[in-house]
Specification:
The protein is an all-alpha fold. The chain has one domain. 69% of the residues lie in helices and 2% in strands. A two-stranded antiparallel sheet has the order 1-2. A hairpin with a 5-residue loop joins β1 and β2. The longest helix is centred in the N-terminal third of the chain and has 27 residues. It is globular. About 2% of the residues have low confidence.
Amino acid sequence: MPVMTTTASRALTGARRRAGLVVRSRIAGDDAAERRQQIWHSEGERWNSPGDAICAVHGDASMFAAGLTALLLQSLHPLAMAGVADHSDYRGDPWGRLQRTSQFIATTTFGTVADASELIRAINGVHRAVVGTDYRGRPYDARDPHLLLWVHVAEIWSFLECHRLYGRTPLSPERRDEYVRQASRTGIMLGAKRVPTTVAELDAALEEYRPELEASPAALDARHFLLNEPPVGWTDKPAYAMLREGAVAALPPWARMTLGLPDGPFGSRAAALHLGRTGVSTLRWVLDAVEG
């Protein structure tokens, strides 16, 4: 019996590690190990220390659900969503876009000041070409501080809310304010103005944008792609379904209503939150075998 138990334990450990490597590759790319070495271990000054709130939030598995929440919430601004629909390859290369986003968050959170600053400068350069009109003919420009603030507010609000719901260790109110303040640096460097530095300011900023938000055709298309046609194989669909439910449950009620989304399975937000916690915990478990 002990031999059988040991064999089964080794098999489980091996399967867990293989699953963790697959997840890491999907999120960070095939060169995830090299990128991790560059971001976390290269020499140089950093903006953040390992004990900072921003590292606790951005380094937690709750970010898997938070990324979906942020995309759904951001899609509600018709001008911001038009820019994504017109200039992003999120449909043609969803994993590539996810990997670039995860690299940006990891570099600006854990990387050196030099690497983070260079990446921000590159994105600011890309934004110069992101101009056009939305489905109603209204002009947009990715360098518009108002749109940049919306993207920042929706993202940071989603990351913080999903960490509150699904994070490994809850943050105190003081640490939540610390997170918003530390996250403001990137928003400011990308060109946003009046960037919130406290949770109260973050909530107020989100509320101020509500009159501008709507379920535009591009937003509904993104919702369908993210929730109904995700770019995952059949073996990954159960895990993705749990994250999807958790991500939707984390949205403000008015955002779910605007996008025409239910509160959860059979209308139960409690069930959706449970699925979200289970999905995040499962991913944390497999990733701990790789990165722990």
